[in-house]
Amino acid sequence: MIFRSLQSLVMICLSVAWSWAQTTSAVQQKTLLGFDLKGSDLSVCLEKQFDSFPQERKPAANAMKRLFGAPASPRVRPMQRNADFIAGLFARGATRQRSSRFDVLFPTPKTRLLK
């Protein structure tokens, strides 16, 4: 009997705490951290406007996803793809570009042992 009443008291306390957390988070979401009320509203408005653009109107976002979507690697092939992509962007803008290739030795052990 005592266990049931204690269990119901805990459930009531948890539900009150949950509803209080929901209302305070809704109040706190009105302003962004580091902005005043006017700047926060402006920033949220600009973000909504940017998100409403079609995907093809976001070339910078697509380029960033392409360039930095995979982990950086010292191997030549992924870096060469990024270099070719950037060279294509320069060529599309009618800008002369020249890229040089440097063969850098990246030491990789033949066997890896954890000690």
Summarize, please.
By secondary structure, the chain is mostly helical.
Task: Summarize the topology.
Elements: H1 2-28, H2 37-52, H3 59-68, H4 76-92
Structural summary, described in words:
- The structure is a single chain.
- The chain is mainly α and 115 residues long.
- Among the domains are: 28-57, no CATH class; 59-95.
- It contains 4 helices and no strands.
Q: Any low-confidence stretches, pLDDT <50, length ≥5? A: none
Provide the helix percentage: 55-70%
As a percent range, the share of strand residues is under 5%
Roughly how many Å apart are the termini?
57 Å
- Count of DSSP strands: 0
Total of helices: 4
Tell me the structural class. Answer: mainly alpha
Largest sheet geometry: none
- Report the principal-axis shape: flat
- How big is the Rg? 27 Å
Strand and helix order:
HHHH
Average of pLDDT? 76
Task: Describe this protein with a few key phrases.
single chain; 115 residues; mainly alpha; 4 helices
